[in-house]
Amino acid sequence: MENEVWYDHFIKILFEKYPKRMELAQVLADLLHIENEAVYRRLRKEVSFSVHEVAKISLAWNISLDSIIGIGKEKIPFLMQPINYIIPSKQELKYLQCIIQSINSLKDFTDTEFMDVCNKLPRQFLAGYNYLNQFYLFKWLYEYGNEKQSVPFSKVVISEEQRRLTADYYKAIKNVPNTSFIFDHRLFDNLVCEILYFHSIQMITDSEKEFIKKDLNALLDYLLETATNGCYPETQNKVTLYISQFNINTNYSYTCTRQINVCFVHVFEKHEIYTYDVEIINKFKLWMQLKKNSSVQISEIDKRSRIEYFIKQRQIVDML
Fold first, then answer.
1. How confident is the model at residue 309 (pLDDT cuts 50, 70, 90)?
2. CA nearest to 104, candidates 33, 180, 165, 21
3. 237 CB contacts (<8 Å, ≥6 apart)?
4. Measuring CA to CA, which residue among 284, 292, 230 is closest to residue 256?
């Protein structure tokens, strides 16, 4: 890599994640189980991080080794973390717990910004409704579960540990100080059509359909309250809700904090690919902000559009 050995680049990436030297040293000391002074010697390049230490840091912080050693510099590295949400492994559970801990820490950084452009219900809302959450897991299993025989909705069993993590995530995500959502204008239409399809092939029973419908109505109540006040009811943290006038192909998002910037493309219903590349993150932010130009803000300022939108969504849900 031009004018920069890989180790210099690695140190640069570490400081991008934790710009304050003292904070970076403490986090690395905890991760590597070494003294702070030993970390400082490595940061000053008096000694080098071992190969084992580099690998451990890269794994814990999702740093691409390709980006460290400069392979394919003209290419942008994207990562993917597949997770089995029905029967997660110990490592997957630990990964989910780390995500929740990271989100909880965001409440201390008032300049944190999250934005999600959605063609399906985002996890920030989905996680709070048991039957809706189960439906998305059921749909994920149906499409990507590799089962010889499709599992009906009633047979999708969610462990108590997974339910707890989902509840913890739903609570933690409200700590993000500034959040924006842009919904596809057909988001609820598409969701209701999917539910009706599975009901028509007897994968969802009449009573289960009614439970999902009840969750959808409760979600609309919550969204209306959030949009009216412009904030999460639980924490009063700011939420801005837009409705896109154009179709949205997939969910994509970015999170920007003092510590870390990352953007995501959500794929295969429950997974996502992501990158910490500064250039692509800046492009993502620009593209997503421009999406507001073809969207209507229904939170706080436009009462008429807000009322019309929620009346229409209730009519759609009533089709169930």
1. very high
2. 165
3. 174, 175, 176, 177, 178, 179, 231
4. 284
C-alpha 77/C-alpha 83 separation (Å) is 20
Query: Running DSSP on this structure, what letter comes out for residue 66?
Result: H
Q: Is residue 74, in this structure, part of any structural domain at all?
A: no
- Out of 50, 69, 88, a domain closes at 69
Integer Cα distance of 15 and 259 in angstroms: 9
Contacts of residue 202, defined as CB under 8 A and 6 or more positions apart, other chains included, come to 152
Residue 86 in contact with residue 155, Cβ under 8 Å? no
CATH code for the domain in which residue 115 is found: 3.30.870
The whole model's pTM is what? 0.75
Q: Of 28, 47, 69, which marks where a domain is finished?
A: 69
Residue 1 lies in a domain: no
Bridge partners of residue 262, in order along the sequence? 255
Answer yes or no: are the C-beta atoms of 241 and 297 closer than 8 Å: yes
What mean pLDDT comes out for the span 57-76? 62
